[in-house]
């Protein structure tokens, strides 16, 4: 149902049902995406008329009431969308993504050549509709890693030299302490701080988890806290067997962050504190089949299998890592739903979405065969996710150039 948004008045809004309100929201978003695409074309035309002068951004800043910095960013995004990412611009014209989402792809592809950027554009074309901005950014990032693996590894190496700590004073007696660190180190620090905070969050503790994490980090840094026994700074790194052996550098993934260069993955593996686990994947689809049992102080095997398989909270758009989520039985035995403690009946849900599952009007449906989870909202709209594979499925390698870049390693299980 298409709505004439500009004919709606206040009384129309007041009389709307929940379904009509959601429909209006959706159509309005599509209109915004199309309007922003029109803005991109108009600005591209202005740049051409002005001979791509450096002063175009100043004119745009005044006419659109933007800061000079924001105007520079907008002009840069317009140049990229109209020359390097035309299919992404077409998705805006179709009402599928907005300028903010397109801007994230522009940022991810900034270091690529024009030819490589167009390959990324082709790779994600037709797959962005219905995806949130962060998911689109991840798709583009994965495409960049596949198309330019050597460049990605070199840029990652250079970035590590930029590590730093900054103090930014804000108002009302507060300040921000910013640390720019290698991803595996930042992840380990957060996991340790979060683990201690959760141990301290007892029924008698009135501080929130956010406040506890801040206090724990401060106490650790100032030497007032030495940590708690049993709280490990554990992060997951997925490494295909051929990358582990140095045959290729593809397919390595730091949980909660994304792809990492093979050289970095092997360095983490060589650390004396690292623990290896074998994860067996189905060769064609890349789906997790089994998690090895041998490791230091293992948790329940089934619990860890589900966390490794799901990787994140299973609700669409949620990025909460599975290691910091609840393993939830879809059919709860305690509620008379014939629930089984088996991988087919378990999914990872962050605490918020775990609670949402029991809210009236919401429905969570799990396909025990495919592990697809469908979340149905109170208006009857369904949103389905599947566990993201660790290995890239062989069927996704549509041409020889992509196959060469991704590596032909799907027949081997990763560590």
Report on this model:
This protein is mostly helical. The protein is 44% helix and 11% strand. The strands form five sheets. A three-stranded antiparallel β-sheet has the order 3-4-5. Strand 1 and strand 2 form a beta hairpin. Helix 3 packs across helix 4 and helix 4 packs across helix 5. The chain is globular, with a radius of gyration of 24 Å. The chain starts with 9 loop residues before the first helix and ends in a 9-residue tail after the last helix. The C terminus is likely disordered.
Helix content: 40-55%
Rg estimate, integer Å: 24 Å
Approximate shape: globular
Helix-strand sequence: HHHHHHHHHEEHHEHEEHEEHEEHEEEH
Task: Give the overall average pLDDT.
Answer: 82
Give the spatial strand order of the biggest sheet: 3-4-5
Which structural category do the helix and sheet elements fall into?
A: mainly alpha
Q: Total strand count, please? A: 12
Distance between the termini: 49 Å
Q: What summary fits the major beta sheet?
A: 3 strands, antiparallel
Number of helical elements: 16
Strand content: 5-15%
The low-confidence runs, each spanning 5 or more residues with pLDDT under 50, are 295-299, 333-340, 394-415
């Amino acid at each position: 149902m298409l709505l004439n948004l500009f004919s709606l008045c206040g009384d129309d809004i007041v009389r709307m049902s929940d379904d009509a309100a959601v429909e209006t929201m959706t159509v309005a978003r599509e209109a915004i995406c199309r309007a922003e695409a029109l803005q991109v074309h108009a600005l591209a035309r202005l740049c051409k008329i002005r001979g791509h002068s450096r002063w175009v951004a100043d004119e745009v800043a005044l006419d659109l009431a933007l800061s000079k910095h924001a105007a520079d960013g907008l002009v840069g995004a317009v140049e990229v969308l109209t020359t390097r990412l035309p299919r992404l611009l077409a998705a805006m014209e179709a009402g599928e993504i907005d300028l903010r989402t397109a801007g994230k792809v522009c940022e991810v592809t900034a270091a690529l050549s024009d030819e490589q950027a167009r390959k990324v554009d082709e790779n994600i074309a037709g797959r962005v509709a219905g995806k949130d901005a962060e998911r689109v950014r991840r798709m583009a990032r994965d495409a960049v890693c596949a198309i330019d693996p050597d460049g990605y590894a070199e840029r990652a190496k250079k970035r590590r030299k930029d590590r730093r700590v900054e103090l930014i004073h804000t108002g009302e007696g507060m300040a921000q302490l910013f640390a720019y660190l290698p991803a595996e180190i930042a992840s380990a620090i957060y996991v340790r701080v979060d683990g201690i905070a959760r141990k301290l969050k007892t029924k008698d503790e009135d501080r929130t988890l956010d406040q506890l994490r801040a206090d724990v980090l401060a106490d650790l840094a100032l030497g007032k806290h030495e940590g708690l026994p049993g709280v490990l700074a554990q992060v997951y790194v997925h490494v295909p067997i051929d990358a582990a052996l140095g045959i290729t550098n593809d397919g390595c993934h730091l949980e909660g962050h994304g792809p990492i260069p093979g050289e970095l993955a092997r360095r983490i593996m060589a650390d004396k504190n690292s623990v290896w686990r074998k994860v067996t994947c189905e060769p064609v689809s890349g789906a997790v089949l089994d998690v090895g049992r041998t490791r230091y102080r293992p948790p329940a095997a089934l619990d860890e299998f589900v966390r490794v398989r799901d990787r994140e909270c299973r609700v669409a758009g949620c990025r909460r890592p599975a290691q910091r989520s609840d393993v939830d039985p879809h059919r709860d035995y305690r509620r008379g739903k014939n629930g089984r403690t088996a991988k087919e009946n378990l999914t990872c849900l962050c605490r918020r979405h775990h609670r949402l599952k029991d809210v009236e009007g919401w429905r969570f449906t799990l396909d025990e065969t495919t592990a697809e989870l469908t979340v149905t909202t109170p208006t009857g709209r369904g949103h389905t996710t599947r566990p993201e594979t660790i290995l890239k499925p062989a069927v996704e390698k549509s041409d020889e150039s992509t196959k060469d870049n991704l590596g032909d390693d799907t027949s081997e299980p990763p560590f």
